[in-house]
Amino acid sequence: MKNQPMMSMHPFRRLITVMMGLGVLFFLALSCNNNANEAAATETEAVAESTAKTPVQEGYEFYMSYCTMCHGEDGKGGGVLADSLKMPPLDLTTITLRRAEFPKDILAKIIAGVEDVPGHGTGDMPAWQETFKEAERITDDAVITEKINNIVAYLETIQLDEWPGE
Question: Deepest in the core among 40, 68, 73, 155, taking most CB within 10 A?
Answer without folding.
Answer: 155
